[in-house]
Design a protein that fits this description.
The chain has 427 residues and is α/β, with parallel strands linked by helices. The protein is built from 14 helices and 13 strands. Strands 5, 6, 7, 8, 9, 10, 11 and 12 form an 8-stranded mixed beta sheet that branches. A 5-stranded antiparallel beta sheet has the order 1-13-2-3-4, sandwiched between helices. It starts with 14 loop residues before the first strand and ends with a strand. The structure holds magnesium ion. The site of magnesium ion (MG) has 4 residues, from loops.
Length: 427
């Protein structure tokens, strides 16, 4: 059916406001919970996006690649509801895309038309490629729209995705840990996770070798160096712990094959991103050279990139990141696509608290969930004081809140922090 989709609305004249660092007195912002809903005014059939607000937390959270900053987006409707989204890293690049490219297209539109808005946003960004800051910005908006839809419908997001396939979400812990360093204390770390009920962990014991020689060569002694933490875990807890290995894309093909063969005796759960993500033929060769499943890849964006890696036969598990791949909408579509290849999903979940809650809702819904990633340091420590719900594990499992939307809001103290900068654009 023919239709016209304006890339930029001509009905509205968005007003952009850069408020700089957040603060109550400086910007006339009362301390508030993020869901300042004013009930009673709405006729839901008329709801519109009135204002889009971004918050950049400049204080980074440390991972293997250094400190990464988070961006939160708040989509406000004209009836006072607020949807919360998130993306990362390089938050200021995504902030620019939201204000310059996406906001003019979104203001005045019905936030419940998630598929149409997603397609319009993608169309507006296609000239510049389908990946990078543009798709991360779209992802943040998409997650906020799902949060909004849940609040409008009065339902938690997992119900809107099709309901629960499970109430207790199985998880593995990515070991950016606040208690034990896996490079020196892998055994105590494994025991500590088992005590918490978590029976799967991810480590990256070959990264230090790769960083020394740019992933181009591997000596026999360096293989032994990389194997040491794996052996420590097996010595400490036997086969009670599943071990996933992460490589952060550092290696070339022959080194990746050599490592894959060296770790095969240790019943490894999966091999993650052994090489850069931009060569499907290389990954096909690697998949043929090992019996261990390859998981690919948080670095792929949209169903189109995942289609290629699924067609190559390399990916035995996929791990889209909701804040990068195109949001909750696209992650659900990628999971369904993977299901047609009998491939399960282990969503990448190593960012901020909104990603964590959004991933919980998706994981509660997906028929083909494998495991959901989580980082105990994040939900026990880093998210504290930032949000109203941290999504902590209980007895080794995760679950979602039952409140409408994603079930979390930014803590009122976030708006008063000197390391948070706020911009907004409105009708
Ligand atoms: Mg990874």
């Amino acid at each position: 059916m023919p239709h016209s989709l304006p890339l930029v609305s001509t009905q509205h004249h968005p007003v952009s406001l850069h408020r700089g660092p957040a603060g109550e007195g400086q910007f006339g912002l009362p301390p508030r919970a993020a869901n300042s809903h004013r009930p009673g005014r709405t006729r839901p059939e008329d709801v519109k996006i009135q204002r889009i607000e971004t918050l950049v937390l400049s204080r980074g959270v440390r991972v293997h690649a250094g400190e990464i900053s988070w961006l939160w987006v708040r989509v406000h409707t004209d009836d006072g509801r607020v949807g919360l989204g998130e993306t990362y890293p390089m938050a200021t690049a995504c902030e620019a895309v939201i204000h310059a490219q996406l906001a003019p297209l979104l203001l005045g539109r019905d936030p419940r038309q998630i598929d149409r808005l997603w397609a319009d946003m993608k169309l507006a960004c296609e000239t510049f490629g389908h990946a990078g800051a543009e798709m991360r910005a779209i992802s943040a908006i998409d997650i906020a729209l799902w949060d909004l839809l849940g609040k409008i419908a009065g339902l938690p997001v997992y119900q809107l995705l099709g309901g629960a396939c499970r109430d207790r979400i199985p998880t593995y812990n990515t070991c950016y840990d606040h208690l034990f360093d896996f490079t020196t204390h892998a055994g105590p770390l494994a025991n500590s996770l088992l005590e918490q009920g978590i029976g799967a962990m991810k480590i990256w014991p070959f990264d230090q070798v790769a960083l020394r020689n740019r992933g181009q060569y591997l000596s026999p002694s360096e293989i032994e160096e990389g194997l040491a933490p794996i052996r420590q875990i097996r010595d400490a807890v036997g086969d009670r712990m599943a071990i996933a290995l992460e490589f952060h894309g550092y290696w070339n093909l022959p080194c990746a094959v050599r490592i894959a063969q060296a770790v095969e005796p240790y019943q490894i759960l999966w091999l993650e991103e052994m090489m850069p993500q931009d060569s499907a033929p290389a990954y096909r060769h690697l998949a043929q050279a090992t019996r261990i499943p390859l998981i690919l890849s948080e670095r792929y964006m949209t169903r189109w990139q995942f289609r290629e890696v699924l067609e190559s036969g390399a990916a035995k598990i996929v791990n889209p990141d909701l804040c990068w791949c195109g949001g909750l909408s696209e992650a659900k579509r990628i999971a369904t696509l993977a299901e047609t290849w009998q491939v399960p999903v282990a969503p990448h979940n190593c960012g901020g608290p909104v990603l964590h809650l959004a991933s919980l809702h998706l994981a509660r819904n997906l028929p083909n969930l494998f495991l959901l990633e989580s980082v105990r340091r994040h939900y026990l420590k880093e998210y504290q004081g930032l949000v109203t719900e941290t999504g902590a594990a209980s007895e080794g499992f995760l679950t979602t809140p039952e409140s409408p939307g994603l079930g979390l809001d930014l803590d009122a103290r976030v708006f008063q922090r000197s390391d948070v900068s706020v911009r907004e654009v409105s009708l």
